[in-house]
Amino acid sequence: MTRYGRLGRLVRWLLVGPAAVAGLVAVLAGGPALLLALGGNPVPDRLPTPGQVADLLTRPDDGQLLLWTLSVVGWVAWAVVAGSLLLELGAQLTGRRTPRVPGLAGPQRLANVLVAGVLAALTTPGISHAHAAYLDHPAPVAAAPVPAAGLAQDAPDPASEQLVHEVDRGDWMWHIAGRYLGDERRYPEIAALNPGYAERYPEYPDHIQPGDRLVLPADAEDQGERRHATGELAAPPTEPTEPEPPPTPPPSPGGAADGGGAAQPPLGYPGTAPTPGAAPSPPGIGAGPPPEAAQPPVQPQPPADPQPASGPLLAAGVLASVLVGALGLYRWRKAARRRAGRVITHPGDAAAEATLRAAATADVARLDRALRFLAASHAGPPDAADAAGAAGAAPAPGAGPARLPDVGAVWIGDGEIHLILSSPADREPPPPFHASGPSSWFLPVTAALPEVAGVLAPLPALVTIGSQPGQHLLIDLERMGMLTVTGNPDRTGDLLRYLVAELAHNPWSDQVRVVLAGFPPEVAGVLAALNPDRVAVADSLPEAAGELRQRLSHTVSALDGHGLADSVHGRTSDTATDTWAPHLLVVNRPRPEHDELLAYLEGALVDAGRRCAVAVATTAPAGGGYGRRSIAITDEGLLKAGFLDDSHPLPAAALPEHLLGPLADLLQHAAAADDHPAPPAADPWTAGTKATGRPATPEPPAPEPPPPERPPPEQSSPDPDPELDADLAQWWRDAAQPPRVAVLGPVRLTAPGPPPSHRVRVCQEMVVYLAVCGDPGASADEISRQLWPTQPARPTLRTAVIMNVRRWLGTGPDGQPWLSEATTDGRYRVRPGLLVDWHLFRRLRARGERRGPAGAADLRAALSLVEGAPLQDAGELAGASPRVPYSWLPGSAVQPELILAGVVDTAHQLVELGLATGDFDTARWAVRQAWLADARRSDDHPWRDLLRTAHAQGDQAEVREIVADLLRWRDTEHPDELTPATRQLIRTLLADQPLVEPSGAPGGRP
User: How far apart are the first and last CA of the chain?
Assistant: First the structure.
C-alpha cells in the first residue's frame, strides 16, 4: 500500500509538488518528444518484405540499425514507465491498491514517488486530509462502542456469535467498518478484535490481504457490498487465535485468590466488601505485621481498568483534551474548600475519567498559548484612530498597529500547529512561528512558547469540525458568519452537539455565549449543564434571532466608532473588549417557517462583511442551506466542503447523544462544592487506614489513669509495622538494591539493572502500574489495556517492554528477578521488597497518627519524601503522542488528587503539633512541603496554617502580607470572597485592623 509522508511544512509541498509535476510531464510528454527528435518514428510507413528484412540483417550496418534498435528500446522503456505512472495515478484517484506487475518493481517505485508528489502539490496543507488508503500514519486505535450508561464498557468477546468478513481483493479496513458498522471511524474496533494479524503484517490494520477473516463487533450488520468492501461473510476464523486464558487457581489458604476470575470494583466504593485473608508483607524487606483482629486486611485490587474509548470520543481528541482541562480547573477551585481527611474526586467518576483521559491526545493548552502569544505580539492601542477622533475626524477603519492576519482555520497534525490564512499575510510571523507560504503560518512541534498572561484569546469562536486521532481541523465560526451543516440529520446533530460541548470549555473561548435553539428539551438541558456560564437555551428561535440581530447592529456601530477593522482587532488592541464577547446561535433542525428568518440573518452578516463577534451554526436538509458557507456530512460521517479535497476524506467531529449524560455528570461532580470521604486503603498492609494513610476510625485518647501506688510491670504492645524503619533506611541509602519507585514528585525509578535504551517512559510507567497492582499483579491483556488504552498493542511491543522492565529491575540478592515471569495464572508481579515512596509515606503517617504527639518525627519523615507535585511529569507532552501516559490513574491508589490530599493533611497535622509545642520552624517547614506538592497552592489548609503560625509568633504585619498573597493567588480583591473557614480565621486574627491591598506577583513567606 502506498504510504505518503506526514503533513509538514508548506515548503515541502511547494518544492516537492512542482518538481514531481515537472517530472511527470517530462516523462509523459517530454519522453516521446525527445525520442522523436533523436530517433524519429521507429514504426516504418509500411511493412517490410521478407527480403528487405533479410537484406537488413545480413549487410554491413552503417549505423541505422543500431539507431533503430536504440530507438525501439527507448520507446519500450518509455511505455513501461508511462504505463506504471498511469497505473499508479489511476489507482490513487480511484482509491484502489496499485497492482504489482512482476518485473516492474523499479518503474513502479518511480511512479509511486512522482504520483505522491503530484497529489501533494494538489493538496492544501493543513486543510486536506489523509485518505483511508494511507491512514497508517496515525497509530491504530482500539475502540469500542460506549453504552448509554457510561463512557466505558467491556471489550467485545471475539468468541461470541459475531459476523466474520472474508477480505476480498481491494478491501480496506476503513470501508469494511462503513459497510458493517455504518461508521468508517470505527475501523479500530475491528482491528482490536483481530490482533493476530498484527504479527503477520507490520502495517496492520492498514494492510490486510485477500483471504483474511476479520471478526466483526457484536453490533455489526451487513448493509450491502460497497467499493473496497466487496468480501463476503464467512464462518468464524480458526487462525490466528489468541491462547485461552489459564484456569483460575483456587483461593490461597488465606482466602485470597492469586488472580484470574472476574475483575472486582475497587475496594472502598459502593458494592464492595473486604475479603478476609492472611496479610501479606508491607512493601519492604521482611515479613509484615500480623493482622489486627478487629479489622481483617483486605486483598488489594488493581487500578481501575478502563476499556478503550468509544470511536467518536476517541476521534474527538480536542474535545477530550478540553474536558480534561475543565476537570482540572474545577478541582483546583474546589480544593480550597476541601475539609481535612477528605478528597475532591468523586468515587464514581474513575472509569469515565480514565476513558476521557485516554482519548485526550490533542495539546489544547499549547494551542491556547499559541493563540494568545499571537494576540500579544500584535497588541497595541489604535493610536491613529485615537488621534483622528481627538481632531474631530472620523477614524479610518483598521487604523492603529499591525493587525493579526486573517486566520480562517487551524490545522493540528503531528504536534505542529498550522494557521490557515483567509488572505495572504503582508508581514513575517513573529518567532517561533514560521511562514510556509503567503497564506500559512506554522508552529513547529519543538518550538518553545513564552507564557503570556492577561491577554484575550483572539479567536474565541475557533472550534473543531473534523478529527481523526492525532489530526484535527478547526475553523473560526466568527469568520464564517453563518455556517450551514447539511446531510444526514443524525450526523449533523452529532456535529452540532460537539461544537457546543467544545465551546462550553475551550480555554481560548473567553466570555463566549452560546444560545441553543431547536434541540429537544432534554438534550438542550444536558448541553447547557456542561457549562451554564457559557451555554443557554432560547425560548424560541425568533427571540434568539432578534437578540442576535440586535447584538450584530451594536457591534458594527462599535467597530465603526472605535475605528477598528473587526472584533479581532478590538481584542488585540484592548479596545472596549467587553463589546467583542462572542454571541453564537446554534440551531438544530429549523422548521420551514424559519427559513426566511435565517436567510435574513445571513443577509445581515454578509452586509457586515467582517468579524462582528456574532455567528450562526445551523443544520439543513441535504441540498439545502441558508448561507454562502456550508459543509456537508455524508452518510459515512465524512466532511464535504469546498476547502476540502474530496480525494482525502476527513471524518466529521461528532458527539453522540448517549455520551452527553456521562460527560455532564463527570463535569458536574468536578464542579460541585462538596468533597468526599477518602476511600479505605485497599492494600492489606494498611488495614485500618484510609488510602491517604490516615487511620480509618481514629479513637479518642483514653483518660489518664490515676498514678498507681507502685509502677506496674513493663508491658509493650507489638509494633504493627516492625520493618518500617529498616525500609526507610533502605530508601535513603545510595544503592541500587532494592529497587525504588518515586511518585511524590517527578516519577523516578532506581534499580540495579541497566535502563532501557528505548521507550524509557513506558517502561517506567509499567513499573509504577505493577507496583500499584501489588499482590494480584496484572495479566498481559490488562497491561496492554492500561498502558495502550487507545490502540491495540502489538504482542511484540508488549513483550519487548516487559523484558526491558525485567532487565531494568534486575535481580535481588537471592538471584531471583524483581519482576516475575508470567506464572501459571498468567499474571506478572513485582516481588515484595520493592519500595515506593508513597507506600512509605502512608506507613509513616499511620504510625505517626497512632503515636499522637510523639509521632511528629514520623510525620516529618513522611513529608521529607515529597519532592514535588505527585507524578509531576506523568502527563508531560501527552498531547503530542497518540499514547496518553498514565491514563489509568483515576481511581487508582496513586491518583494525584488523592496523594495531594494526604500530603496536605499530613503537613496540617505536623503544624498542629508544632504550634502546640512552640516549634514554629517545624510548622513553617511543613507548610513549605505542602506547597512543594501543591504548586498552585489550591488548598486553603497551608494558608490557614501559615496565618496561625505568624499570629502565634506575634507578627501581625506578616499576617497581613500573607492575606495579600492569598488574595493574589485566588485572583480576588477582598477576603469576603474566600472560603468561609479562611474568611473567619482572617477576621479572628486581624480583628478590626485594615488589610493590605493586594499588589505585585504571587508570593509568600512560609
Answer: 63
- Smallest CA-to-CA distance from 404 within 428, 375, 438, 424 is with 375
How many residues are recorded in the chain?
Answer: 1006
The alpha carbon torsion through 940, 941, 942, 944 (nearest 10 deg) reads 80
**Secondary structure (3-state) at 516:** strand
Question: CA–CA separation, 823 vs 148, rounded Å?
Answer: 38
Neighbours of 389 (CB within 10 A): 16
| Cα separation, 926 vs 806, whole angstroms | 38
What is the per-residue pLDDT across 909-948, written as a single tens digit (0 to 9) for each?
999 999 999 999 999 999 999 999 999 999 999 999 999 9
Torsional sign, CA 514, 526, 655, 627: negative
**Exposure of 892 in the CB half-sphere (CA atoms within 13 A):** 25
- Which grid cell is 209? 490481504
Question: d(Cα 986, Cα 1002) in Å, to the nearest integer?
Answer: 19
**Which residue, among 93, 126, 132, 135, has the nearest Cα to 13 in the 3D structure?**
126
How would you classify the pairing of strands 835-836 and 740-742?
Answer: parallel
Q: Is 607 exposed, middle or buried (0-12, 13-18, 19+ CB in 10 A)?
A: exposed
Q: 748 and 767 in contact (C-beta within 8 Å)? A: no
Instruction: State how far the Cα of 960 lies from the Cα of 970, in Å rounded to an integer.
Output: 15
Model pTM score: 0.69
Torsion, Cα of 64, 65, 67, 69 (10° steps): 160
pLDDT tens per residue across span 749-804 = 999 999 998 889 999 999 999 999 998 999 999 999 899 887 767 888 899 999 99
- Kindly state the cell numbers that stand for 832: 515484595
> Hey, what amino acid is at 852?
G
Find where cell 462503513 sits.
Answer: 178
pLDDT digits (tens, 9 = 90+) for 466-477: 988 778 999 999
